[in-house]
Amino acid sequence: MGKTIRLTMAQALLRFLDNQYVKRDGEEIKFVGGVFGIFGHGIVVGLGEALAAGDTSLRFYQAKTEQGAGHAAIGYAKQNARLRMMAVCSSIGPGALNMVTAAGTATANRIPVLFLPGDVYASRQPDPVLQQIESPNDYTNSANDAFRAVSRYWDRVARPEQLMTAMINAFRVLTDPAETGAVTVSLPQDVQGEAYDYPEEFFAKRVHYIDRRPPAEEQIERALTMLRQAKKPLLICGGGIRYSDAAGELETFCNNCHIPIGETQAGKGIILWDNPYNLSGIGATGSLAANKLAKEADLIIAAGTRLGDFTTCSKWLFQNPGVQLLSLNIAPFDAYKMNAVPIIADAKLTLQALIEKTGKDYVSGWGDRIKEVRAEWEREVDRLYSEDVPDGPDGSRLSQARVLGEINDKLLPENTIVVTGSGSIPSDMQRVWRTRVKDTYHVEYGFSCMGYEVAAALGVKIAKPDREVIALAGDGAYTMLHTELLTAVQERQKIIIMVLDNSGFHCIDNLQHSQGIIHFGNEWNTRDAKSGLLDGKPVQVDYAKNAESWGALGLRARTVEELRTAVKEALAATGPVLIDVKVTPKSMTYGYESWWRVGTAQVSGNPDVVKAANAMAAELARARKF
Fold it and tell me: Is there a contact between 430 and 280 (Cβ–Cβ < 8 Å)?
């Protein structure tokens, strides 16, 4: 029998977390950077006591919403390329349920986050406890069971000794490139404080080896056969390339073979914008260049992408009748999508093998076509970046695209990390943003979670304290969740928040109106006394004042000149800043050679809706079935 140490379950948990490391390619990295959370009654006297004791190096960050805490942890882990992560804790009941959205966001984006919600008493003596939901047909069911659907691993520690197997399994998933996502371990509030004689070896330094899975020789030969048969291959660069650190290999492979690249949201910024084979975003929110060539391509190489609906235009984008799909992915679940030929292996090693085998022998048949469509797209981006628009509400004279152009081409340092996550801004960003420094494009669009932006920017800043970090949020996303701005003030973490205010949920209004539906419920107008509808005057909000109330610097911009002045002042500031930018409604970019399947009503008294449904059915016939 080895030596033991008597600790509460919560104390043991923190000691375990503090000794977890990952190792890849010979580099060892401390894995857990800290704990975000809010101390409700279900956590404060258990895990809270252990954190307050200060017996570990884990820093506690006091969040203002549990969902915001989760988003900050996601931002931290994503910016660290999944080689570092944070835990997030909450009380039971509503505090725990506030984290479910963040857990879904982590899992959808394959980002490791450890969620530690407090849970009801395992002893069942205080019963029902405050914030407990009672399930008459299943007494083991609690609010935390809601995490099951959005977690890659779920557990409940009902006895202190169960912590050991729970944590081993939790970190098995958190450190697995193919399986990672949200991990939820529920902590009953009585068990958190219960003592147990834990083996000392449980707290020994533990290194989780992120070993690269090499491709089999037969896999490489299959890939080479498909490549050599193709005249017009196109590669989709997904987030898996970032997490495999395979940017250099992908760039060399595409340069050698003259293969154009379309970027997903997670894959954008891995290859810099001025690479001659980079055609920017692909899919429903993609560029004219990438989407044109995607329709012609006879081979799609899906590299580290889960082939989401937006990337494939609802399986409609690849129009060549002889097109084949080759998927390079560490996750079998993703590699088999759309009937692709799967290469289940590490992206870096797979691309290295393809480079070695192809050398300079294979060159695609695109010829000058890549150069032509890229030049056409660059002219369009230049036009958008200099676009003038009529006066909008509140005297604004700025288009959303022009704002992006100004900060991208002229105002921000090239190594600024830009963060966004919902609405029309990610669509514009994927199309037109010119990434000049790697790993500076940070966009959550796997879950399209409104409210990600501000909290994630805080997590990114904690991960990269020496860099400028700017969150781009629409007025809808900002109002939905911005409370971690107060945490940024409290932590003295300088982030810049730019609210692009077009007075409404105009991304969804665009979708609504494109299907023939009247403008309804998405524009931010007052309720008209006569009509009884929300079609009165636009609501006027001063977001700069809101930021000032939190203790941040508030700035305003309605013209290009004011925008330039505000950004200059924000960069010179030492604390958090919010720039309230009024943009003209409907001044975002729109689709280029793309289509998106939506559930348009097939029966309606509105002839425009019927027309849109018929058009949807016609395009659906052109889409792949699986």
Answer: yes
CA–CA separation, 583 and 143 (whole Å):
41
Q: How far apart, in whole angstroms, are the C-alpha atoms of residue 70 and residue 84? A: 14
- Residue pair 454/484 in contact by the 8 Å Cβ criterion: yes
115 forms beta bridges with 88, 184
Query: Domains of the chain by range and CATH?
Result: 4-209 (3.40.50.970), 217-375 (3.40.50.1220), 392-503+540-582 (3.40.50.970)
Pairing outcome for strands 59-62 and 32-37: parallel
Cβ neighbourhood burial of 81 (10 Å; 0-12, 13-18, 19+)? middle
Strand order in the sheet with 469-474: 441-443, 417-420, 469-474, 496-501, 577-582, 553-557
- The CA-to-CA distance between both ends of the chain, in Å, stands at 56
Residue type, 134: E
pTM: 0.97
Query: Cα(471)–Cα(460) distance, rounded to whole angstroms?
Result: 10
Q: Rounded to an integer, what distance in angstroms lies between the CA atom of residue 486 and that of residue 497?
A: 12
The tens digit of pLDDT for each residue in 279-305 reads: 999 999 999 999 999 999 999 999 999
Q: Are 578 and 544 in contact (CB under 8 A)?
A: yes
Which residues have C-beta within 8 Å of that of residue 485, sequence separation ≥ 6?
454, 495, 497, 547, 550, 552, 576, 578
Predicted local confidence at residue 394, as pLDDT: 61
